[in-house]
Amino acid sequence: MCRVVDLQQAVLAKNDATAHTLRADLAARGTTIVNLLSSPGSGKTALLERELLLARERSVPVAGLTADLATENDATRLARSGVPVKQVLTDGLCHLEAGMLGGHLDGWLPDDTRLLFVENVGNLVCPASYDLGETLRVVLASVTEGEDKPLKYPTAFGLAHLVVVTKTDIAEAVEFDETAFRANVERINPGVEILLTSARRGRAIGELLDRALAAADGAPLHTPVMARRPDGPGHGHAHAHGHDEAVAHHHGDGQVHTHGAGAMARNRS
Q: Is residue 164 part of a domain?
């Protein structure tokens, strides 16, 4: 088991080094990365499409990169905004890594890009551990996902600079308890800002763009209590495979192996 942990740490350390270089290289050319994380079906693509369209209307040079296991559906939707968009297919990998991202930017990202919005794979476990060289990390959750979402995924929410609630136009219909959600976010990440949005109704459209532009201009960012180092988003080795989160991986033997602190303890017993 120690060898597994050592391997995970080595992989993340390598990724952190790559992310540090990518962040510095993009900063030198005036580009800031915004990393968007959420579960599948959170409404992330719908909100991002509205934000990209608004950026184009404001003549803000932005681009969008979206990652999925399969299909180019999200890229097709985002491209309707009229800004440069690229689809990355991960071929089954549940997250992006800094090296993967950097490789896809070479020869594609326009030189004048001020903001690069990265729509990460729909998953709140694996992507939480990987620094992509972002300056701003945003975690999104829809009103349909339950007020305890931050408690179930503490690494993702605990490392966020900004939390966005989506689909608030149906909050009443699904009996979303905003007070409870805010309390759970505060428990995991004290002081982080929470934006309430609705892509369908246009609620708070542009506020994500404003926060991203402020970050690009060097405005102070919220410092998550889980941050482990001063550079970048500060995830360091606050792994998603932590105390409260377990990852199920399918292997060729047809079995499902679960990894995480609790699972490891059970495996050792």
A: yes
What CA–CA distance (Å, rounded) separates 266 from 269? Answer: 5
- Please count the structural domains in the chain: 1
263 within domain boundaries:
no
Task: Write the CATH number for 22.
Answer: 3.40.50.300
pLDDT digits (tens, 9 = 90+) for 95-142: 899 999 999 999 999 999 999 999 999 999 999 999 999 999 999 999
- Given pLDDT bands bounded at 50, 70 and 90, which one contains residue 91? confident
pLDDT tens digits along 186-211: 999 999 999 999 999 999 999 999 99
Helices and strands per DSSP (H, E), number in the chain:
9, 9
Residue 131 belongs to domain spanning: 2-240
Which own/partner pairs from 96-100 qualify as long-range (CB within 8 Å, at least 24 positions apart)?
96/67, 96/120, 96/121, 96/127, 96/130, 96/132, 97/15, 97/18, 97/130, 97/132, 98/15, 98/16, 98/18, 98/19, 98/22, 98/130, 98/131, 98/132, 98/133, 99/15, 99/18
